[in-house]
């Protein structure tokens, strides 16, 4: 049973009567899963982290609130499986150019820094995802600084 699940995750076996997801859906799901995993990895999901995930997915992919919620719900069911990280980062590498991957890294940093704390598990996840996306340490640090600046700007805005 475990091997069947692993084979399906690795796409070595055709899904049972399921239509093949569109490339757009795969890209959205890959992004959502990585961002949701970043929020979950420290064992506590903060409302600010989830808000950043919703904002990022809505803005980046031009999705409405309902579409984002469905995507996040599906990503939450999938997140937590290291095998998926490889699958999803493969999708991101194939579909995103270097600047888009750097932007994804910034969005990942925004999620893990949204609650004001950087847990060791979050830092480790960001490092691993950066490696899988072929983002070097200098660009990873640049993405972190950009994320910190973005979060600082958000905090300085008056509540709406």
Radius of gyration from the alpha-carbon trace, in angstroms? 16 Å
End-to-end Cα distance, whole Å, is: 50 Å
The CATH topology corresponds to TerB-like
Q: Could you name the CATH class?
A: Mainly Alpha
Main beta-sheet annotation: none
CATH superfamily: TerB-like
- Work out the strand percent: under 5%
Shape: globular
**Mean pLDDT score:** 84
Oligomer: single chain
Low-confidence stretches: 1-17
Secondary-structure-derived class:
mainly alpha
Determine the number of helices (DSSP H or I, runs of at least 4 residues). Answer: 8
Helix/strand order, N-terminal first: HHHHHHHH
Which features does this protein show?
single chain, TerB-like, 160 residues, mainly alpha, globular
How would you describe what is shown here?
With 160 residues, the chain is mainly α. It has a single domain, classed as TerB-like. The chain is built from eight helices and no strands. The longest helix has 20 residues, at 137-156. It starts with a helix and ends with a helix. The model is unreliable at 1-17 (pLDDT under 50).
């Amino acid at each position: 049973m475990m091997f069947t699940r692993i084979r399906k995750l690795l796409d070595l076996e055709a899904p049972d009567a399921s239509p093949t997801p569109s490339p757009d859906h795969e890209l959205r799901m890959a992004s959502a899963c990585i961002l949701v995993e970043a929020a979950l990895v420290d064992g506590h999901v903060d409302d600010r982290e989830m808000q950043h995930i919703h904002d990022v997915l809505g803005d980046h992919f031009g999705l409405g609130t309902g579409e984002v919620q469905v995507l996040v719900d599906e990503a939450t069911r999938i997140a937590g499986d290291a095998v998926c990280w490889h699958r999803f980062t493969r999708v991101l590498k194939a579909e995103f150019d270097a600047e888009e991957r750097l932007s994804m890294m910034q969005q990942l940093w925004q999620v893990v820094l949204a609650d004001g704390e950087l847990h060791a598990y979050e830092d480790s996840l960001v490092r691993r995802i950066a490696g899988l996306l072929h983002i070097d340490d200098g660009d990873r640090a640049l993405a972190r600084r950009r994320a910190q600046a973005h979060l600082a700007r958000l905090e300085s805005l008056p509540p709406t």
